[in-house]
Amino acid sequence: MSRSHIVDNLIKEIDNFSSQLKIEKVGKVIEVFDGIAKASGLSDIKLSEMVTFPHGEVGVALNLEEDAVGVIVLGDFSKIKEGDEVKATGRILEISVSDNILGRVVNALGMPIDGEGAIRATKTYPIEKVAPGVVTRLSVSEPVATGIKVIDAIIPIGRGQRELLIGDRQTGKTAIAIDTILNQKGQNMICVYVSIGQKDSKLRKLQMRLAEGGAMDYTVIVSAGASEAAPLSYIAPYTGVSIAEYFMDQGKDVLIIYDDLSKHAVAYREISLLLRRPPGREAYPGDVFYLHSRLLERACRRNEKYGGGSITALPIIETQAGDISAYIPTNVISITDGQIFLETDLFYKGIRPAVNVGSSVSRVGSSAQIKAMKKVAGTLKLDLAQYRELEAFAQFGSDLDENTKKQLERGKRAVEILKQPQYAPMKIEDQVIVLYALTKGFMDDVPLEKIKEFELGLIEYTEKNAKKFYKDIEETKMWTETGETELQNAIEEFKNNFLART
Fold first, then answer.
1. Which of 325, 331, 319 is closest to 291 using CA atoms?
2. Which residues pair with 49 in a beta bridge?
3. Which residues of 135-160 are buried (b: 16+ CB within 10 A; e: fewer)?
4. Which of 1, 120, 135, 222 has CA atoms 20 to 30 A from the CA of 141?
5. Please, which residues bridge with residue 311 across strands?
């Protein structure tokens, strides 16, 4: 081959040569301990940016210091050693989302942990996102039926609302959340249950309970267990709300339960102290309010122009000895649109759900109730308020006038009617009938110990003999005069038969 031919080939090769530059921002681990890694050399990194370690572990940059970056490790930090390379990805932490996630149990990173194989994902969503603005939102007006009489009647929850469940441990907070999920069957609602720092055995029982009730078909469980590192408990609620946002973006209604945000705040306090952030009140960092406000503000009801759909949030907070004036409870109360306060004393008196109606409030109020419920519940609130007031005075004197005795008896029956067993959510039509019978005085002469028996029998009887009333409630959310007359006759007939038997 001639020299000129070789030269031509070389020129051609040089012309065709193209190099692709791949720029990677790489730093070095200078310290690692308790789920935290300190890295140097990542001067361009942003807050909440995802980083990767040599053995596949993922971290999130949380502290941007002058000469180092504080990273929380989402996984096994024991594999990371001093001197290891750490790479910045330029992306905020994301999770994979798809319709296939329904019915599954995932960890804080959105990976399946139920042993049923991988989840085929179609999209990724960032776990941190700016909450929808005021212009995109719609006022709350559609109810979320919990199936729990005391809540649906007195402290109603609407689609797009944030209602706090607050009380001491073992007062039935999770029980209310489970009943609410079970009651969403056929209500066109997707549920996300976020378990933060719970025992694995408790989570397993909960999953089995939901599966038995057929609720896992429309539910996703996000779990950061008690045995896992604090960083996973910290990001679990954000993962849960990102999954909820994926479904809301399809125009669907979603119910999300955070169980519980007290443990979430404790996990964040642990991380912050390890990162040497200055502690504030109760050793929590200064931004602990922002921790929960940016999470709960993502729950909303969007208008049609912006895609519709809603996220309803039920955060749970555990109090110590009923102290709702502690730091975290007051923070979350101020962020939410009302609270359901569960009391230990009521629980041990046998009033379950142990809801303290006086301390509980829904700032959305009756706008989240159907017309029929609004009509029967209005007088119920009054009956209970008068009963609570009179009950205190009745202890001191025995000779009460007839009117006072009547109010006391009505109040006792109202308290009895509002008791409800666990895993027995009630249809809204049945609730309206029971409360109608109570507030219209049909139960005033039924013996107190027979009230529960009367209630069960009444529902069964009216389902067969007051079909017009049921149809009205289902179709128009309010009764007609004909339907009301039919119901009154059915209640009278049943009551006469019932009293004759007892």
1. 331
2. 92
3. eebbebebbbbbbbbbbbbbbbbbbb
4. 222
5. 254
Other residues' Cβ atoms within 10 Å of the Cβ of residue 126: 15
Cis peptide before 353 (omega within 30 of 0): yes
- For residues 193 and 221, the answer to whether their CB atoms sit within 8 Å is yes
Q: At 38, is the secondary structure helix, strand, or coil?
A: strand
**Count of alpha carbons within 13 angstroms of residue 436, beta-carbon side:** 28
Q: How far is CA 439 from CA 67, 83, 142, 198, 481, in A?
A: 69, 73, 24, 41, 17
> In this predicted structure, what is the pLDDT of residue 21?
55
State which H helix or E strand residue 374 sits in: helix 371-394
Residue 254's pLDDT band (boundaries 50, 70, 90)?
Answer: very high
Measured CA to CA, the distance from residue 332 to residue 341 in angstroms comes to 13
pLDDT digits (tens, 9 = 90+) for 117-158: 999 988 999 999 999 999 999 999 999 999 999 999 999 999
DSSP E strand stretches across 307-445: 310-318, 338-342, 361-362
Q: What's residue 388's pLDDT?
A: 83
Whether the Cβ atoms of residue 312 and residue 140 lie closer than 8 Å to each other:
no
423: three-class secondary structure by DSSP: coil
CA atoms of 459 and 454, how far apart (whole Å): 9
Structure token pair of residue 179: 């009943």
Tens digits of per-residue pLDDT, 51-105? 999 988 999 999 999 899 999 999 888 899 999 999 999 899 999 999 999 999 9
Q: Give the separation between CA 313 and CA 195, rounded to whole angstroms.
A: 14
- pLDDT at position 393: 74
Active-site positions? Answer: 363
CB atoms within 10 A of CB 189: 22
**Cα 277 to Cα 421: distance, rounded to the nearest angstrom:** 46
- Three-state DSSP class for residue 321: coil
Q: Per-residue b/e over 73-102, b at no fewer than 16 CB within 10 Å?
A: bbbebeebeeebebbbeeebbbbbbeeebb
* Beta strand 219-224 pairing with 105-107: parallel
**Crossing angle of the two packed helices 402-417 and 451-465, in degrees rounded to 10:** 70
Element (H, E) at 345: helix 344-348
Helix (H) or strand (E) holding 167: strand 164-167
Give Rg (Cα) of the chain: 29
Cis previous bond, 34, omega within 30:
no
